[in-house]
Amino acid sequence: MDRGKRVAFYERVGYSCLIIALLMALCIDDTCSQIPRRRPRNDKCPKVRAMRNFGLNAMMGSWYVIQYFASTEMFPEYGCMRSSFVTSDGFVTMNFTYVFLDDPDATFQQGNITWIIPNYGQPAHWVHAESSYEEIYNTYVIDTDYRSWALIMHCAEKTKSQKYLSALMLAREPTLGQNVINFLREKLPRYDIDVENMFPIPQENCTRMDAYAYYAYNTS
């Protein structure tokens, strides 16, 4: 093989190797792009805009919990959930009762949460007031018309773990129109709340035990 032919041969070999290398690089890049990337864990609570011109006293009183979300729960667990809000001396307390759906006796459970209002200029923002909770725990009234429906959410930032999010859709009556439910649910995704796990709370057959035995819902 003369020199000219050898040069042409090696040029073709080099060109072929370059093409193969480029194709392999493209394949590797395409394969990598198809591998799902793990989303970075967001441990911080979202920035929430609490309701403006909020009337704290008008929000108080008894409510039915129509829908409920908690970031730690993947299945519906509660029924017959009701809550009652009272306020005094810069504090807000929510007493609540509920039953577990898998409890055949439908035994009423009870609980309560107390918040402090850190800034009277923003009365729709409350902070967990109990000394046993030493981390960040904010509660916001997102929206309410006071007489029929309300939407509140909680977010806690916990050391060395993911944030805890929860939300309550409230109504003064045991049922709420679907158009209102849709309207309120649309407000939640912007705050990292997955509405697919915003579960309805059954309010039927809730008279087998008197929830008033735990506390008075009428706070007027």
From TrEMBL:
Q: Name one Pfam family in it.
A: VDE
List, in alphabetical order, the Gene Ontology terms for molecular function in this entry: violaxanthin de-epoxidase activity
User: Gene3D superfamilies recorded for this chain?
Assistant: 2.40.128.20
Quote a single Gene Ontology cellular component term: cytoplasm
Q: Which GO terms describe its biological process?
A: lipid metabolic process; response to reactive oxygen species
Family annotation (InterPro entries):
Calycin (IPR012674), VDE_dom (IPR010788)
> Protein name, please?
VDE lipocalin domain-containing protein
What is the source species? Anopheles minimus
Mind giving the lineage of the organism this protein is from?
Eukaryota, Metazoa, Ecdysozoa, Arthropoda, Hexapoda
